[in-house]
């Protein structure tokens, strides 16, 4: 079997194993043959990659992105991973404690608001996130620690804190004022609140959704806005709940808004939302390597705020210079230079030779070492 990016999915491919959402529920079952509706469903649920029966590759021509997919033998073992080293540090243990406290508060506050009609304590939640970014250097290493969080069955609230942290760091990189940083952090904390209003039998339904069910799930941004609209919070925060699935190329939902029509804070939360979904570990799949994530964003750059996304990708790519990596041919190397026109394909020093990955279609970074 072979792993394929959803953005490169083709009709006629055969699913080699059950496909799950980041929330852990079944979307597509093994043996399903892809059609347009199923591919759109995978994109909607932010399923970024999945396994197909390799024989089903015959019907289409492979290109660079399809060669860039993880194969089973290239997935680095957890015991050898870059992230294993992070988990063993005292710094991470302190981060984990602060993060877990924040998740508990987020879960209680959001549930109290949605199910008990209590006022949202968003400023209290904001302070927890601010403490983390004040305690730890707000750079990609903090993203790495977010990647290492595990042990939760319900990922809704973990994802909310992750997106809030990532959104705040992005706003700091963009040199937003502290007031603006606070605004985007609040938006990240509450962006997915509307999912709590979708019936569980729809959210957890195995197999294909009916058109009515599909439309219902796509309504969660509107539910989120309706939950927040009478709360004493800024309109920008409400817009983050409403617009975080809108895309600058007009291909998002629920309203197919274009760049200037999307709240600028929601444009940042949208990037943080997708980044967290791609990099987070799940029980059924490992998070993608940062360089795969960069390449996927580069392939879809028109969907995001161009100033923000390019600044974020450059910051992430540059942060790993001098980092040791593993390539898909099992060789190891060190990143020595970033190609600003192909950020996901840096120059790597391998055994004394400089390898420019932007010129090597069949070689890619599969893991940080």
Can you describe this structure?
- A hairpin with a 2-residue loop joins strand 7 and strand 8.
- The protein has helices at residues 36-44, 64-67, 82-87, 90-116, 122-135, 140-147, 156-173, 178-190, 200-203, 211-217, 220-228, 235-243, 264-279, 290-299, 306-319; strands at 2-5, 19-20, 26-28, 49-52, 324-327, 332-337, 347-350, 353-356, 365-368.
- The strands form three sheets. The protein has a five-stranded antiparallel sheet with strand order 8-7-6-5-9.
- The chain has three domains: 2-75, Alpha-Beta Complex (Molybdopterin biosynthesis moea protein, domain 2), CATH 3.90.105; 80-287, Orthogonal Bundle (Hypothetical protein af1432); 319-368, SH3 type barrels, CATH 2.30.30.
- The chain is α+β, with helices and mostly antiparallel strands and 369 residues long.
- It is 46% helix and 9% strand.
- Helix 5 (122-135) crosses helix 7 (156-173), helix 11 (220-228) packs antiparallel against helix 12 and helix 14 runs antiparallel to helix 15 (306-319).
- The longest helix is centred in the first third of the chain and has 27 residues, at 90-116.
Spatial extent as radius of gyration: 20 Å
Proportion in helices: 40-55%
> What would the principal axes of the Cα set say about the shape?
globular
Write out the strand line-up for the largest beta sheet, numbering strands in chain order.
8-7-6-5-9
**SS-based class:** alpha+beta
Kindly identify the CATH topology of the largest domain: Hypothetical protein af1432
* Average pLDDT level: 84
Please tell me the CATH architecture of the largest domain by its name. Answer: Orthogonal Bundle
N-C termini distance: 25 Å
Helix and strand succession?
A: EEEHEHHHHHHHHHHHHHHEEEEE
> Which regions contain 5 or more consecutive residues with pLDDT less than 50?
56-79
Q: Please, how many domains?
A: 3
Largest beta-sheet details: 5 strands, antiparallel
């Amino acid at each position: 079997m072979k792993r394929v990016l959803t953005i490169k999915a083709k009709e006629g491919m055969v699913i080699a194993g059950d496909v799950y959402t980041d929330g852990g529920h079944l979307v597509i079952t093994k043996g399903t043959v892809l059609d347009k509706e199923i591919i759109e469903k995978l994109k909607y649920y932010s399923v970024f990659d999945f396994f197909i029966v390799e024989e089903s590759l015959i019907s289409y021509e492979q290109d660079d992105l399809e060669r860039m997919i993880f194969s089973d033998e290239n997935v680095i073992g957890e015991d050898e991973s870059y992230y294993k080293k992070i988990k063993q540090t005292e710094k991470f243990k302190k981060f984990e404690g602060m993060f877990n406290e924040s998740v508990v508060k987020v879960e209680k506050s959001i549930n109290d608001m949605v199910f008990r009609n209590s006022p949202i304590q968003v400023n209290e939640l904001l302070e927890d996130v601010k403490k983390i970014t004040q305690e730890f250097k707000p750079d990609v290493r903090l993203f790495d620690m977010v990647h290492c969080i595990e042990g939760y069955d319900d990922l809704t609230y973990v994802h909310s804190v992750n997106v809030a942290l990532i959104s705040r760091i992005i706003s700091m990189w963009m040199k937003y004022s502290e007031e603006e940083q606070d605004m985007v952090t609040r938006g990240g904390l509450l962006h997915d609140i509307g999912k709590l209003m979708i019936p569980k039998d729809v959210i957890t339904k195995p197999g294909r959704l009916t058109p009515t069910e599909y439309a219902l799930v796509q309504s969660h941004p509107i539910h989120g806005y309706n939950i927040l609209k009478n709360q004493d919070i800024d309109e920008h925060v409400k817009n983050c709940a409403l617009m975080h699935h809108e895309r600058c190329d007009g291909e998002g939902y629920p309203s197919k808004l274009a760049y200037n029509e999307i709240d600028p804070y929601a444009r940042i939360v949208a990037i943080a939302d997708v980044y967290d979904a791609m990099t987070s570990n799940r029980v059924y799949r490992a998070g993608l390597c940062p360089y795969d994530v960069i390449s996927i964003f580069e392939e879809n750059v028109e969907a995001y705020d161009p100033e923000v996304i390019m600044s974020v990708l450059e910051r992430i790519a540059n942060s790993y210079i001098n980092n040791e990596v593993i390539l898909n041919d099992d060789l190891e190397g060190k990143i020595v230079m970033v190609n600003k026109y192909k950020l996901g394909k840096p120059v790597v020093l391998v055994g004394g030779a400089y390898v420019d990955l932007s010129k090597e279609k069949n070689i890619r970074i599969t893991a940080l070492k």
